Amino acid sequence: MYGTDKIKTIYFESGLKNSGIIDSIRANKNSSSEMIEIAHVSDLELLENKDFINKEVLVVSHYNGKFLSSCPGSDGMVCCRYFVINTGPGCIYDCHYCFLQSFMNTPWMHLYGNFEDILREVDEKISHTKFHTRIGTGEYSDSLALEPLTGMSLRLVEHFSRKKNATLELKTKSNQVDSLLHVSHNGNTVISWSLNPQKLIDEIEEGTASLSERIEAAKKAVEAGYRVSFHFDPMIHYPGWESDYHGVIDFLAENINPARISWISLGTFRYSPGLKEVIQKRFFDDNLSRAEMLNGPDGKLRYLKRVRIEMYRSMKKKIREYHPDLFSYICMDTKNVWEDLEGHAPGSAKNLDEKFEKRRIQMMDAE
User: Fold this and answer.
1) How far, in whole angstroms, is CA 300 from its chain's centroid?
2) What's the CATH number of domain 4-366, 3.30.70.100, 3.30.420.150, 3.80.30.30, 3.50.50.60?
3) If DSSP codes are grouped into helix, strand and coil, which group holds residue 132?
4) Which stretches in the chain have pLDDT values below 70?
5) What does the domain layout of the chain look like in residue ranges?
6) In angstroms, what CA-CA distances link 27 with 23, 34, 148?
7) pLDDT tens figures, 166-188
8) Which of 99, 160, 258, 324 has the fewest CB atoms within 10 Å distance of its CB?
9) CA distance 71 to 353
C-alpha cells in the first residue's frame, strides 16, 4: 500500500506556514521529504506537465472558493441530499478508473491549508439546514490516505462530534484508522470503505490497501464505536464477477456485525468520454474502457441497462442474505433502473434521503 513516505516534495504557501495543517505535516512527514515554501501556488506553473500525474508532490495552498457543495449528481440520475467537502483534489493511490485523471488541471496532489475556513462553511451549512445533514469527504481525494501526515480527518471527527444535526462520512480505500480510534466521536461519524474483489484491487486499484486490510480496519472502527458503511462502486463486469463479488459480501459477513453498518451503496463503472483517452494512454493493457457501453442521459458511458440490472439484482439478493434489514441503495443510476429493481423510484432527493434518516434513527434506537 502506498503511504505518505511516497511524498518526496511538499510545497506550501508562505501565508500558511503557521497553520495547523503545516504544523502537522512538519511533525509527521518522512525525514527524506523536502518542504519548500512558496509565495503562491502560481509560482509552480512552470513546473507543470499536465500529461504526467505526479504522486510524489503535495501542494498546500490557500483556497478562496467554496469548500462545500451538493454531491455532483448527473442529469437523469436518482440522487440524495448529500454534501461533499473538497479538502483539495488529488489522491496518492492510482485507481485506473478514477475520474480525477481527467478532472484535475495540475499534475500533483493538492491540499487546502485554510482548514478553519472549511469548518466555518460546514457550520454555516448545518445551521441553515432543517434536516439531518450528511456531509462527506472522499469525493476529490481519499479521506484517510494522507491522515498520518495531515491529521485533517481527526479534526473533522472532533468537530462533528459536537454537532447534533449532521453526520460526517469518511470514504477510503486505506486502512489508516488508528488515529481515529481513541477520539470521542459521539456516533456522528461513519467511516466508509470502497470495496472490490481482491482480483480487481491487484489489477486496477494500484497502491490501495488489500481487501483484508480494509475489512480489518473496519473491524477496528466498529470496536471503537463507529458506524461503518461500504461502497461497491464502481462494480466492474467481467467473467466470474458474480462469484467474486459475492465472496466479498461473505467476507463482510464473517467479520462485520450488520447492526453496525449504516448503508451499502451499489454503482457500476461509468465514465465521461474524456476519461477514456486518459485511461488508455496511462494503462496500456486497459480493458475497462473497452467494454461494451452506451451513453446515458448524463453523457457518461455505462454498461448496458440489462447488465447493470443483472449486477444490482444479484448483489441486493446477496446483501439480503447477509442481513434482511441492511439498507442498500443504487448510486448514480436512472429512475428506470430503480423501477425495474424496486418497483418504484424515489420521487426526489428528499425521498431517498428519508431512507438514510430512517436507518440512522433505527441504529440509534438499537444502541
Assistant:
1) 19
2) 3.80.30.30
3) coil
4) 45-51, 74-75
5) 4-366
6) 6, 13, 10
7) 999 999 999 999 999 999 999 99
8) 324
9) 13
